[in-house]
């Protein structure tokens, strides 16, 4: 039964989320995403174990999917969708689906 509650209207989702995402050609991607109440975000990614410029910062606006379950970082190439849970953001794949398999737990950012 749908009682109208979703991540957008039921959770305290604003704040800063951090985690280490997997990387195919580096030691990992240290990721920090801040979601603000005004619909803006800041994202900082650092590719560990790579030479040269390895830290990138982006800012922009985010929106919610129609069901209020995940946020979409506008101006970002996919993967740019994150499922919002209690004090966590889970990166979705480029098709907007939850990542499964052995590495699934590594795609979670925590407050």
From TrEMBL:
InterPro entries: Cu-R_lipoprotein_NlpE. Pfam families: NlpE (PF04170). This is Uncharacterized protein. It comes from Persicitalea jodogahamensis. The lineage of its organism: Bacteria, Pseudomonadati, Bacteroidota, Cytophagia, Cytophagales.
